[in-house]
Amino acid sequence: MAECKSLPEFLEAHRKEEKASFHMPGHKGQAFFTRLGYEGAGMADAADLDITEIPGADDLRHPAGVIKAISDRYSKLYGSRRSFISVNGSSAPIMAAVMSVTGRGRKIIAASDCHISVQNGIRLAGAEALYIEPERIGFGGQLHEEEVSAAPGQISDGDRQGIPGGVSAEKIGALLDKHEDADAVIFPSPNYFGIMSDVAAAAEEVHRRGRILIVDQAHGAHLKMFSEAYGGAECGADRSLPAPAEECGADIVIDSTHKTMASFTQSAVVNIFGDRVDAEEYEQALLMLESTSPSYILMDSLAVNAEITEEHGSTLAKAWKEDLDCFYSEVVNISGIRALTRQMVPGGLFDETKIVLDFSGLGMSGSEAEDALTERGVYPEFCTGTVVMCLTGIGNVRKDYEKLLDALKDISAAAGR
Fold first, then answer.
1. Residue 61 in domain
2. Residue 318, Cα to own-chain centre: how many angstroms?
3. Within this chain, do residues 298 and 368 fall inside the same structural domain, yes or no?
4. What are the pLDDT digits (tens) for 295-342?
């Protein structure tokens, strides 16, 4: 087989080759599923892409060819010093970030609404967590922690009115001054509700004290694409578009490209900036946690996502924003339902690709509203209290937003509004 420049090119050439496979995986390709009548099960289509580290396919643990090209592509897209791809979602990269910057007997400052992978990484590192409470946004009725099953620890034990907001840079600085043995700071931005922290201000506080800032941007992999499409955005508060952590001074940024972009579920990208982080040490920590049998289907999707972003990113971002602008201009006219907007969040630090809807005006709980939406063919991301969050992505089109609007109007009318 001739040398291929990209993983998709290699996989396609390998798929067409007449061959006998005596390597993992056991199914040996599409023919097995077709022979047994599983063409319609979805297995057959993917099977020929499901290979292992054969010659020409490179090796995720020692990338030097087509896999390294994927990482290099993301480094260019996000403007990082080094980028790494993950087939273990964002969880493994987040744990690796914690493990690579702190250790036993040391401390790390984490937002109390951090993902469970942060907590697991702290345990693995043998470090101690110093939790910092995010600010709160007065939106929606009372929230119930048990309902936010997909975001452990999202709601504090204190005031449950409203939703978690960003983390204060001033509070971060004060806590770092109090704990000189704290090596780093980690928080999500955007959080599960789309609320962002002022990463630039936090980075200034952290770096002034010689520490490391990790941003869990699992829900914001698209922000860099938006910034590029609209000519960049000034870091900090009061900007027309939320700036990505990559442009605001973070040292390690973890992006779940599968959540809002086009790569497949369980794929992600890590971006390292500046010289405060030892990239080789980070890579070793990541390899400790990642599978030694990485999915070529996931890596192929990461390669395709990078290509789509390069070739169509600006066009897709602008269409996405236009659809969102249209939705927000219409939803304000629906009685009893309120949508969270940038104007409701201090500094406008809100990612409006997260459609956060409050149904308290209809006397409905979030779970009731989710059921009502699902009955009308609309499937939200999650609900809590009186709030439902609809996670938009690069693949949504105008008719999806129109269907959501029609469903909301119908729910409002059914409630007598």
1. no
2. 20
3. no
4. 999 999 999 999 999 999 999 999 999 999 999 999 999 999 999 999
